[in-house]
């Protein structure tokens, strides 16, 4: 009996740089596509496309879809689909808007702007979203109605209960605190952003280091130290570049003056401030990192992937796949509520059509990001990147004056081409991927 | 070896289960003693796999009871079965194709550290058990769909053996294997038997049955034709039971 069963080092075939860095080829492909889009539009717009202001806008606009796409990855990996996310977003948004503008102030007798209203509104929104998702999950998991049908029904139902809740009217967000989730109204400024960026870069480097240490402690082969160092450098560099860039986007002078006036002060001559990181983008990063952790390192995530790979095997391994389905859809509902909070804050009001057709963008983002509709395969970072690619395309096309209908034509084509390229790639690689 | 006076490891009494009016298993009783291999034989559709899935927790019997070590056991799902140290190697292998060997081996029983799945530890354990079962196995970091039939089989076997099974159910473990790998499985069965495990072996190949099993239970159309001691019968006797559904004349008392 061999003690460790350690693989004897086979005569190493010549490894390409991609293999040495252990890069995910699909991720690399997406990054290249993303870079190509950025470069083309940067040249086309004479540099405006990558200006701090535009990078800020693209980031902020992509957040709601990206947040929901993270949840959609789990749904699709588990061999389901959720067509109701846009309507669930609208429903959560309606409840939150009505809560902060009418229900809570009258029920609790509180002034506008009270932090209690903010907190309770958000909690109500999250509860409604999670509840809607759990209901979907129960119908799919325990009653075995196909998720396509349940969520197609949900698309109609929630959209129109949303309508009924607000009497079809738009609701302005009167609570100024809520607006901080929207983007320009909720930024951290340059110093805090840079500090956070530095901390995040350090955390990323540490995470890579401890993963390597863990592998080494079990005597596994790891990539060479220089390759590990290069990965750390690239990741940390990307984080710092992004934060630095956003910290170069100045807050307009008129707005600064208003802010000082609101506090009863006079703005000093020559005072400037930078936007830095928007709170909504930080929320997205927290969501993406947590979801990645769930996907890779938690039992819940492991079971989602196992169920997607082979539902029977998961069941026979003692996994309660029904309860799992409820959890997956509840999480999706929660993320819809979060996306709703961000979307309404960005628009500064709840409109009837908020989140309309978002379900298709969310699914497209997940699919462009490499999530296979057959289940079992998908990554969170891919979905976020997918959302960013779509938003960049749209933003870029709008900047160079492409008409709206054509923008959507291009987004549709990109979706099909992305999946097509993926299929060709997988055929070439044979069974290996 | 006489089983008289010993408590069976497993006793399935009068088990019935039907699907939409079709009796897949019809009042069948079988038992299994420690250190014994019992073959389950019969045509496709005879009800062998269904019967065994009742023991594995995948199906619920409509009628009848299961006793483990002489005590009545409630097996409502695969988790319950595992709690009784019943491990199953399914004909389909029941592997999640998109996960690697370690993730499959520990599926449902992941090794955790600080609340998180410890993949490195699981890979190390997988390397250990594979070093014993199939020393040629190298592909620890690829999804199991990239493995050959034999390699996939060894992952499924490793999963059943790793967790100290007392009762092992093997549903056609050698169906997808070449001669060399079949020999490895045969040796493994002998080794596990020597360790005192009880093994239910569903098998179509009469030669394997004659070689590996102590007793054979034959089923036809959901009913038990009979259970025989393998050393008291010939291949032809067993074939007769499978095809005709009758016990051989010299045994039918």
3D architecture notes:
Chain A: It is found in: Cell membrane. Chain A: Keywords: Cell inner membrane, Cell membrane, Membrane, Sugar transport, Transmembrane, Transmembrane helix, Transport. Chain A: One of its GO terms (molecular function) is transmembrane transporter activity. The complex is a heterodimer of chains A (433) and B (253). Chain A is mostly helical and 433 residues long. Helix content of chain A is 70%, strand content 1%. Chain A has 16 helices and 2 strands. Chain A has a two-stranded antiparallel ribbon. The radius of gyration of chain A is 23 Å and the shape is globular. The model of chain A is unreliable at 1-13 (pLDDT under 50). With 253 residues, chain B is of the alpha/beta class. Chain B folds into 2 domains: 28-85 and 165-253, Rossmann fold, CATH 3.40.50; 98-163, no CATH class. Helices cover 32% and strands 26% of the residues of chain B. Chain B has 8 helices and 12 strands. In chain B, the strands form 3 sheets. In chain B, strands 6-9-10-3-11-12 form a 6-stranded mixed beta sheet, with helices on both faces. The A-B interface holds A 1-7, 214-215, 217-220, 293, 296-299, 301-303, 305-310, 312-319, 376-377, 431-432 and B 56, 58, 77-79, 82, 88, 90, 92-99, 103-104, 107-110, 112, 115-117, 119-121, 123-124, 127-132, 135, 137-138, 140, 142-143, 145-146.
